[in-house]
Amino acid sequence: MQGCDVRIAGESTKLDVSPCRSGACSLFDACLSGRDDHRREFIADVLPSADRVFYLNPELRRYLPRGEFLPYSSVDINAIAVHPPKREGPPRIVHAPSDAAIKGTQRIVEAIEALQQHREFEFVLVQNMAHAQALQVYQTADLVIDQVLAGWYGGFAVEAMAMGKPVLCYLREEDFTVVPEEMISDLPIQNVNPNHLQEDIASVLDRRSEWEEWSHRSRAFVEKWHNPRLIAAAMIELYKKPSAAFTIMDHIRRAQGAGRSSAALRAVAHADGG
Q1: Are residues 107 and 42 in the same domain?
Q2: Residue 233: inside a domain, yes or no?
Q3: Per-residue pLDDT for 111 more than 60?
Q4: How many CB atoms lie under 10 A from the CB of residue 237?
Q5: Which of these three, 184, 203, 225, is where a domain ends?
Q6: Which among 76-80, 127-131, 186-190, 255-259 has the top mean pLDDT?
Q7: What is the pTM of this model?
Q8: Does residue 243 form part of some domain?
Q9: CB-based burial, 91-125: b 16+ in 10 Å, e otherwise
């Protein structure tokens, strides 16, 4: 489950920050008048027939008590080259909303315009562009702002981190309980609050000396937690045995541990002249 397929808008709107608001999401009223009921029926009548249920946004734990968190696996990490932020010159900030209303684009633009009154940087808003062309723009970014209403990051952030980009996003910390502590500890995304975006973005601009190290952490994070090959291998195991006790996260940890062990053995063999 990814988002609005099971997100109950009438419940989500009660959160302090949510994309489900009248005047924000164009479908909000339709959700309240009928779509939420269809989602409740789907959750109550269809999903119980599934052996396992996974969700990509931690907020969805509120509606799927028997669900399990699953990291995005939609980006071929190995096919994306690293393009670290430049060290000098006016930085370029990129924001690429798939839906401006639910990504909080208006708030982002307002904060950026206020900052541009007294800071020198370039802002690029990527919309209505072919994906291949958009990827070329992402490569030129020094900072990336993902989304500031949903409480978690999206596929755009994964692409940006794979390129070694520092990413800013609103993260709802109360939903971290369903995400492994190790993943949260590794998470390189700078948490920004939509209610004081200008100050949060300014703080990041003031710490440019940290961006290079931040770039390395971003790439390492997606290689570990968003590797589609590892996640696919775990799903294959579950299809073979749906009742298996392990989770996707267990599989990622085991695979990472095996990878580190293999690398260590290769290093020892090399040192011994093998």
Answers
A1: no
A2: no
A3: yes
A4: 14
A5: 225
A6: 186-190
A7: 0.88
A8: no
A9: bbbbbbbeeebbbbbebbeebbeebeeeeebebee
| Within a domain: 133 | yes
- Specify whether the CB–CB gap between 141 and 124 falls below 8 A: yes
Determine which of 24-38, 118-132, 159-173, 195-209 has the lowest per-residue pLDDT on average. 24-38
- If asked whether residues 117 and 50 sit together in one domain, one would say no
With contact defined as beta carbons under 8 Å apart, do 251 and 237 qualify? yes
- How much is the pLDDT for 259? 59
Q: Are strands 68-69 and 190-191 parallel, antiparallel or unpaired?
A: unpaired
Which pair of structure tokens corresponds to residue 116? Answer: 């541009």
Write out the residue range of the structural domain in which residue 165 sits: 77-225
In a shared domain, residues 208 and 146: yes
d(C-alpha 265, C-alpha 178), whole Å: 34
Question: At residue 109, does pLDDT exceed 90?
Answer: yes
Number of domains in the chain: 2
Q: In the predicted model, what is the mean pLDDT of residues 11-39?
A: 85
State the angle between helix axes of 248-271 and 211-225 in degrees (0 to 180), rounded to the nearest 10: 110
So what's the pLDDT on residue 95?
Answer: 96
In the listed set 37, 70, 103, which residue is the last one of a domain according to the structure? 70
Task: Please say whether the dihedral angle defined by the alpha carbons of residues 102, 3, 160 and 185, taken in this order, is positive or negative.
Answer: positive
Nearest alpha-carbon partner for 122 in 95, 82, 162, 153: 95
If asked whether residues 204 and 114 sit together in one domain, one would say yes
CA dihedral (120, 99, 104, 142) positive or negative? negative
Q: What is the CATH number of the domain that holds 91?
A: 3.40.50.2000
Asked whether residue 251 is domain-assigned, the answer is no
In whole angstroms, give the CA distance from residue 224 to residue 251. 11
Distance set, CA 15 to CA 12, 20, 32, 130, 181 (Å): 6, 9, 15, 34, 23
